[in-house]
Each structure stands twice: as structure tokens, then as C-alpha cells.
Design a protein that fits this description.
Two copies of one chain form a homodimer.
Chain A: E1 4-9, E2 14-19, H1 29-40, E3 54-58, E4 71-77, E5 84-90, H2 92-99, E6 102-108, E7 117-121, E8 126-130, H3 139-150, E9 155-158, H4 161-164, E10 172-174, E11 183-185, H5 190-196, E12 199-204, H6 217-233, H7 242-246, H8 251-257, H9 279-289, E13 292-295, E14 306-311, E15 315-319, H10 323-329, H11 338-351, H12 355-367, H13 376-387, H14 391-397, H15 400-406, E16 414-415, E17 418-419, H16 429-437, H17 450-453, H18 469-485, H19 491-497, H20 499-513, H21 522-539, H22 551-555, H23 569-576
Parallel strand pairs in A: 1-6, 7-12
Antiparallel strand pairs in A: 1-2, 3-4, 3-6, 4-5, 7-8, 9-10, 9-12, 10-11, 13-14, 14-15, 16-17
């Protein structure tokens, strides 16, 4: 049984399995979503109209025994940036999809009328079920109910209230192994694209799935062994290592020390109180409360950086509090209280919001005078406006740039209208080069220069050095390739430093695909993805002027080190040679 | 006493007279505002930050005896489009400025803190007066009070509540000869630029002004005679002619008949009820009520297309109800009642809003379900949200595109994010080419193809013919030149058909400037302005992809003639050869 694609027409409420095109054979994850978007979506279409398409694709090795490979990519034209978007998440949902040999789900058209639907996909069938009863409800309860209705073994993906508002800050939510609505393809407003089509949930029931076809078992197994060895020996990724012990939040103290942890809407880069929301404090607290740590986002992960944060006494599990979420909802809002941060993260998950965009927009709302910085309870109350679908809620649900314009705030940290993640580009220049030049809008994962500039992975680089075009480009290309495989980007920490690990990754791809790729093929593969994405953006009207940080980063000095973003435009343009 | 420029630094609260640069000698109006913006404003700056500048410039012959020449141009980087903007208005304010030999006021920087200021300009002095007492108040009463405070002979320009919200739909308001706040440089959110700097009003007291210097009185007088002759003989512009008798609203029936009068947010192009808000009905009604018609926007106008609309019994004068305003606030909202339209126009003037943008955003709000189409009282109530500065008000004050995004509406009639005027481009293609390709965003005045396509002025053209790049280009170039002179664009109706009239226009310019321009110099002069503007927009990140109409115009057929906008992209790109 070969791989197939599921094409879902929401205008006609039809879902049909199609042959997976032969020329897509080597594509998965981001390579596949971006290729289909570029091929089938008019770059000038309205992102919430019938011409946009929403693509779901597990990675090439997802669903196999390859460790740490449970990622799913989601692609479309973004209502936030107006350009192409790929957002990905780690979730059992992706593994189930892959094991059913569904290489992609392509959702197109737009349901006419106000009804919402659930798409239920089984081995032989895809059916639509009216989902109106879930409209306006929080996803924690809804996911619990959906698992009751469809059984504990399904995978769920869906959108929440923020997406019902067509909010450009809305993400697409996947269940974690506990069934919590906590694993998000968060960025770029893809939730609104899904909701605009009248699609509320996708339920994957893999009963009877054949599993992923492995073309060459021997090569595949050898590759796994090498990768496993790398992951279990590198300090960042190994069991008991930094990520495993403290999760991504291990970075709070490190980035604060570097003066690059944005405080109070990017008005400072350091605050002693940040330590109160650090990974170290959080891990301790989770242990005390009876939460879970470490934990995996999808079965088969070696790194296990995830966790289940709960209220005191292990109650009301939220899921993981990632570094970027803690920062966005914490220090960036002047909030230094893990309980507040946890509840804000719960609200994001419940409403179907990207945590980074939400933290950014809350901080902008604070600067606009809606509530004062540091007011965690007030921030939660503000998020109720989204739940109630009030005009304020509609403003907030549309993201950082939108909120800034509505409330007359000019310090608005966005690139291509997407809110900046947890690293101030004035203190750490390379990540700023990535923010500026990735086709995705401000996105740390697109070319994580922090690895080299701060963590010393893949070499070292002075954070203040402005010559970062090579670093950012190389990382962006490598990342695009990783995002196609289904592997978590965090394997890069290990394989950037351990060549045998990278060799293993390529062997697992060859094992699945029956291909003969070498390590040397990786850059070309990644570059092709980025070229596809940049071509789409160019056709959508983007130029090198979109590859710039907002004016205030160039003019306002960031305490305590009083740096501005001084990477010359020429250096930014050297990334892609435009 | 040579011409000078007044440079106003709002950061330092300093205003200084400067020499008018010799290389600007032949520049006025739009030529001057666009040149200064292009020279002094970073195209990537935040439009509401300290780096943007706001330029006021009367035209070359403004303030002289040249008829119909009381226009003022206002320029800046637009918070609505993100590109360069020139908006102009006819007002005695401009004539006073010109007679004081102030070629331009350049407002730069940004006041720190929440205070607002009035800038009072007299012959020798410019001073700042705290204006906080006017904040939050409607402009009808405020202008009345300002005239009491500063005397009846001053000219006033200012911004209202919409601009205090930093709304991208806010305009800059100039007084008419009756002192009413009804003459707007409306488009592109320039009101917000003014308010962002902390500047609320400019008061011009021309006591002791030397008057405009005329280099060659004889040539000047000859030119005036020729122009006057053209204006008084052409059917469109002559006393008792179409504009004089019915105002611009004479177009309501004509454009409705052509199937190009957009109804209910551009969902149809014709409705029999439109006749109820026609210029003919309005003129009759004004007579009955004891309003004023005809009327001029500034002294010395021959055409006199203006009017003073009032409530029954001549009470509560509003000022002019222009065709585009009547359409925007009327048929486009499904409203066919002149009293409702009049009160909505009053609300726009009172709040400091562009009427076209407001009509567009109200229709989008109706489509988004806030109120039903046709509900005039409901629309007025909605506008109170702006007055009260509620979150809904903040959404609306930011324009059509913003309102569409907030309320999840995808039929959003904007180009470069500026709302479309009163001619559906599916029924009348040439004006669509102008909407798409002018550097200004959707703007009928930028290249008024209607003149030729509907009115048979300057030749004739089939409205359905898609070959309109030449027509639009030629009109855009001629318009840019006219916008520099200070003449009202409406003189073009006469001088396009009467060559001697155009000759007269050039002679008046030569008379004032002591130049030797010929009619053949006009296209080059206009083209230079457009090149300056397009270069700015390019540096702000615009490409030919910004020169497109929204998707729905290409796909949704417009009843009753069921046309789509089928001008090929190549034809659009032929306008500027990009």
C-alpha cells in the first residue's frame, strides 16, 4: 500500500484519497507543505478565503522507530504575515497519520454558512461530522470530551475560540500523549485558516494502519543507532542533560545573564526577578506539585524536554511550559510568577492561541495602558475578552501588530507582522538576522543562532558580532531540511557537534525512502525548501524591505548593555544574496 | 520678502522659519510635499513615530486671483498604506498660508508625554499653546470656539477624536468659508500622523501678510482670462452647469445607471433607491431647508460645486455632502436616506474621519454582522463608539482593512489597505486601473478615468474596455501636476477639452514663478512627482504586487451586469512599465 494524500474540499464537504505524486516522493513535513502551498495557492489570495489551502504533513521518518521524530508540519498562506507559513509541533497525531501512510492532508475551499465540522479519518474513510456543539468552548474540556467520544487512541487536531474569531494569533492545537491540548503549530495564524474553512477538528483513528513503509530496514536501523548514540551522549540532549532536566526553560537564566531576555515589551534585556520563572525553579516546583518531568511530546523521544505543569497538588494539568512561552507570558509582561505564567499558558491552550504571539500582544496592550506591566491576574482577565468574543478580544486575537495599531503603540516587536520570540536581537545579533531574513516572519526556530552564539553548539560566535549572515543562512538551510524529516529540531544540538549522528539521520532517511542521500545532499535539500518559500513570498509582494527589524530596535538602546541592532542592511541581504 | 518654510519640531516644541530652498522654487502642493517626504522621511520608519514628518503646502498659484485654486496638500508616510501619501483639500486656510509666503510647514519629531498643542502662526512668529482642553471634543463645537478665541479671520486646521486614537481612517480637517470643519485632506490617516506628534491644531493669522509674489503680472492676468473663459464655458464647470447646480452628487444617478455604484459593501452595482440620495434630490432639499447651494470651498472659485447641507429648517449646518461621501455613507451601507447620510457625514467631520474610508468600514462592519445594512441610526450609534474611544471605536477608527480583519470579513474593498471610492472597478475598468496603480492606494482623484469613461471629457472610452493603462497613466500624470498648482482638480474637466484653458493654466504658473513653462512641460512635471512617490514606495517595500485589486473583484461578479475586474496584470504593469 503506497503513500497517499487526503484532499478535503470544504466547499463541497468532500474528502478523497489521492495517489501521492511520484515527484513528491522525497518530500515530507515542511518540504511537502511548502511545496504544495507554492504549487496550489495563489500568493495574492485572501488568506481566509476559499483559495487558501491548509496542508498537514508528518515528516519523512515520523511514525517509525527513529527517535524524537514525532513532528507534524502545517502550511498555508499566513493571515498574520501574508506570506507562506510552516508551523510544526510534536504530537502522537503526526505518528498516527504517518502510520496510516497519509503523506499529507490538503484542506481547500471554504464551507458556506456558519457550520463547523469535524473530519474523522480512518483507514478507508474520511467523514464529516457537525461540530457546532464545540463552538465557543475551551479546548481542555473539549479535548477531554472528544477523547470520550472517539476513544482514547485517536489523535486530535483542532482550533479554538481565537480561530473562531479568525484571529491571526490563533494556532492549530494537537494533543500531547496525555490528551492535553498543549502541542501547537502555533505561529502565523494557521488556526484561523482552518476555522475559515469551517473545519474545527481532525480526528485520526489509525486502527488497522499498515505502519510506515521502510524501504531498507538495515540501513534504517544502522542510522537509528548512530543518531541514538549522538542524542544520548551530547550534553544538551542526553538523558539527565540540560533539556531533559529542565526543559527549554533552562534558557531563562542563561539568556537573562546575556542581557537578551526581553522585559516589559522589549524595553530591557535583563531583570533579576527572571530567575523566579527559570527552568531550575520550575522543575523543582513540578516535582513538589506532583506534575510530570521529564516527559515526551510524542512516543519515542530520547530528549524528553517536555513536562506537565499543574496547579498545586497536581491539579488541572496544563502541559508543557516552554521557555518561549514562559518568557512571553512572564518577563515580557513584567510577570515573574510561575502560577500566573502557568494559568496564562493554560488560557492560550484553551483558547487556541500561539503563546509567543500572545505574550507579545499582552505586553503591547500593557504598554498601550490596558493594564499595568506585571499584572498577571489582569492579563488573565484580558484574555477572557477573547473567550467572550468582545471587540477587545477580537483585537487581541489578531496579534501583536494589530494590537499595537489598535492602541496606538509604536514599540511593536514584529517582523513580517509576526511577534518576536524570547531573544532580544540587540543583545544577540545572529538570532536577529534570522528573525529578519527567514521567510516565516520573526521565528527563532527557523535558524537558531542562539545555539552557536550562546550555547557553543556547532562552533562559537560572539553574540555582539554583527557578521552573522553565514551563521544564520547555514542554520536556516539545515533547519528547513530537519523540518522535512519529522525529527525534532533539537536533534540538531547533538548532530551539529557529532558528525556520526548526522550520518545516522541521513541513513534513516535513506532507510525509509530507499534513497542514497549523503550528508552533502542536506544543504541542497534545505535550500530548495527555502527557495520555494521565498519565491512564494516574492509573488506575494515581499522584497528585501520585509527582511528588516522594526525601527525601534535600530534606535532604542537595550539596557543593561545598551546595544542597538546594528547589523547593516547589507549583511542582512547577504543571507540570501538578494 | 521671499517664500519661506516653517519647520516645527514637536520634540523640542520649536518652530523656526527657514529659507525656501532655491531648488524647490518651482514646487508647490503635492510636488512639494512629496519631494520633502521623499527627501527627509525614512521609508521604513514607523508612520506614528518621531521619524515621520507631516508637510503642509499650498499650491503654486494658491492665494492669488487665479480662480478655483484654494487647495492645500498634506503629505507624510501614511499609517494606512505604509507608503507615501498626499491628500488635499480646498480651504481658505491654504490661501492665507500662501499669502504669508509660507511655502510649506514641516512638522517633525514627536512630543513626549500626553499633551496636545496648538501651533499659532502669524507673520513673524509661531508659538505653541496647550490644547488639552479640546481633547475628546467634537470639531463642530471646537472650531466654533477656536474662531471665538482666535478671531473670525484665522484659518484653522486640526484633528479630531479619531486621530487621538491614532486611527488610520482619520483625516486632517480644514475650515470652510463658513468656519465649518468640513474640508478634509481625508485620505491615508494623516490625522493620526498629526496627532501622534502632539499637534492638535494649526491656526493661521495672516494679518499683515504680503500676499503672493507675482513675477510677471501681465502673463499671469492673461492666463487667468483664458482659464476663466474655459471654466465659464465648459458644461461641467460653468455657472449653472452640472457641478454648480448639483455638486459632485450629480454622479449618483449617472454611476448607478452605469451599474458601477457599489451597494452594500460592493455586492451590487445598482439599486433603484440610489436616486433618493442623488444630487438632484439633494439640491432640491437644500433649497427647501434653507441651506446654501451653490457655495465655494474657498474664495475665488468659479465652479462652486460646494454646498451647506443642514437639518430641516436650516439648522445644524454640516457643510458639503460630496458624491463620494453620499455614496460611502449611503448606498454602500444600504442607506438611501439623505438625513441619515447627512448625520453620518456630520459625525465624520465631528470626529475627524475620512468619509470614504468610514463608509467603507461601516459597510464591512455591517457585513461582519455588527448592524444590518440600511440601518442609518445604527451606523450613527456605531460611530459613537469612536467618540467614546471604546475598543470597537478603536477598530473602526483604523479603517476598512483593519475592521475587516477584526470582524473576520473577507470581502474587503481596499488597495494598499486604503478603502475604495464610489466607482466599482468591475463596471468601470479604467478607474480600477487607477485604484490599482496610483502610489496613493485606492484613490479616484489620482487619475479620474471616470471623466473619459463616463462623462466623455478628454475623449471617450468604453467603461468595459480593459485597455486602460494609457488613459490611467496620462490622467495620473496630469493630476499630479494639477495637484502641485493649487488648482482644484475640477478645472481639468474644462482644460482637457479646451486647449486654451490649459494654456491659461500654464501662463498663470509662469506669471507667479517668472518661468517659461509650456504645455509640453506639464507631463514631465507630473511624471517627476509620481516617480518621486513610487521611489519612496519602493523603498518602503512596495512592488507591482501592491498594484493589484483584492481577489474578490477578480472572482465575484457584480450585478446587474455581472462583470468581474478582468484587466490583466500585464495591463496594470504597463501603466508604469514595471
Amino acid at each position: 500500500m503506497p503513500k497517499k494524500m487526503l484532499r478535503v474540499n470544504m466547499t463541497k464537504l468532500e474528502a478523497k484519497f489521492e495517489d501521492f505524486p511520484a515527484d513528491f516522493a522525497a518530500l515530507g513535513g515542511r518540504a511537502l507543505t511548502s511545496t504544495i502551498v507554492a504549487k496550489e495557492v495563489d500568493p495574492l489570495c485572501h488568506p481566509l478565503g476559499p483559495s487558501n489551502k491548509l496542508i498537514f504533513a508528518p515528516g519523512i521518518v515520523t511514525g517509525t522507530a527513529a527517535p524524537t521524530s514525532g513532528r507534524i508540519s502545517v502550511g498555508a498562506k499566513s493571515p498574520l504575515t501574508g506570506g507562506i507559513k510552516e508551523a510544526n509541533a510534536g504530537t502522537p497525531f503526526s505518528q498516527k497519520l504517518a502510520r496510516m501512510r497519509i503523506a499529507a492532508i490538503v484542506v481547500e475551499g471554504k464551507h458556506i454558512g456558519k457550520d463547523y465540522y469535524t473530519l474523522k479519518v480512518t483507514k478507508d474513510k474520511a467523514e464529516f461530522i457537525n461540530a457546532n456543539k464545540w463552538v465557543g468552548k475551551g479546548l481542555y474540556n473539549v479535548y477531554k470530551e472528544l477523547f470520550k467520544e472517539y476513544g482514547n487512541k485517536v489523535g486530535i487536531c483542532g482550533v479554538g475560540i481565537a480561530a473562531e474569531l479568525m484571529g491571526a494569533a490563533s494556532g492549530i492545537c494537537f494533543n500531547d500523549p496525555e490528551g492535553l491540548p498543549s502541542r501547537y503549530a502555533g505561529r502565523g495564524g494557521l488556526g484561523a485558516v482552518m476555522a475559515s474553512k469551517g473545519l474545527k477538528f481532525i480526528i485520526i483513528d489509525e486502527t488497522g494502519a499498515p505502519g510506515v513503509e521502510i524501504a531498507n530496514e538495515e540501513v534504517f536501523r544502522e542510522g537509528i543507532a548512530k543518531l541514538r548514540n549522538a542524542l544520548t551522549t551530547h550534553d544538551v540532549t542526553k538523558p539527565g542533560g540540560a533539556l531533559n532536566s529542565y526543559g527549554t526553560s533552562v534558557l531563562v537564566n542563561i539568556i537573562n545573564e546575556a542581557g537578551g531576555l526581553p522585559q516589559r515589551n522589549f524595553s530591557a534585556g535583563q531583570d533579576d526577578r527572571s530567575e523566579k520563572v527559570s527552568g531550575e525553579v520550575k522543575a523543582e516546583e513540578i516535582k513538589k506539585r506532583g506534575g510530570v518531568r521529564p516527559h515526551f511530546c510524542s512516543p519515542g523521544c530520547i530528549i524528553q524536554c517536555s513536562e506537565v505543569w499543574t496547579k498545586a497538588g497536581g491539579k488541572d494539568p496544563v502541559g508543557v511550559l516552554e521557555y518561549e512561552s514562559v518568557w512571553a507570558l512572564g518577563p515580557n509582561c513584567g510577570i515573574y510568577n510561575l502560577d500566573d505564567v502557568g494559568e496564562l499558558n493554560r488560557a492560550c491552550n484553551d483558547l487556541g492561541l500561539d503563546t509567543i504571539e500572545t505574550g507579545d500582544l499582552l505586553a503591547v496592550a500593557m504598554e498601550g495602558g490596558l493594564i499595568e506591566f506585571g499584572n498577571g491576574k489582569g492579563a488573565l482577565k484580558l484574555m477572557e475578552e477573547i473567550q467572550k468574543k468582545t471587540p477587545t478580544g477580537r483585537i487581541l486575537a489578531n496579534g501583536t501588530g494589530f494590537t499595537g495599531q489598535a492602541f496606538g503603540v509604536t514599540r511593536v516587536p514584529v517582523v513580517k507582522n509576526q511577534g518576536l520570540p524570547a531573544y532580544d536581537p540587540r543583545a544577540i545579533k545572529g538570532i536577529g538576522v534570522t528573525y529578519a531574513t527567514t521567510p516565516m516572519g520573526a521565528d527563532h526556530t527557523a535558524g537558531y543562532a542562539i545555539a552557536t552564539e550562546i550555547m557553543g553548539v556547532g562552533g562559537t560566535a560572539d553574540p555582539r558580532d554583527t557578521k552573522k549572515s553565514d551563521l544564520s543562512r547555514n542554520l536556516q538551510i539545515a533547519t528547513a531540511a530537519v523540518d522535512a524529516t519529522g525529527y525534532c529540531l533539537f536533534i540538531a544540538f547533538a548532530v551539529l557537534d557529532i558528525p556520526e549522528g548526522l550520518q545516522g539521520v541521513v541513513e534513516t532517511l535513506n532507510g525509509v525512502l530507499g534513497a542514497n542521500l549523503t550528508v552533502n545532499d542536506v544543504p541542497g535539500y534545505g535550500m530548495q525548501i527555502i527557495k520555494t518559500e521565498r519565491d512564494f513570498n516574492k509573488a506575494a509582494g515581499f522584497t528585501e524591505k520585509n527582511d528588516r527589524l522594526p525601527e525601534f530596535f535600530l534606535k532604542e538602546k537595550l539596557p543593561p548593555f545598551n546595544e542597538v541592532f546594528n547589523v547593516p542592511d547589507e549583511e542582512l541581504d547577504k543571507v540570501w544574496g538578494s
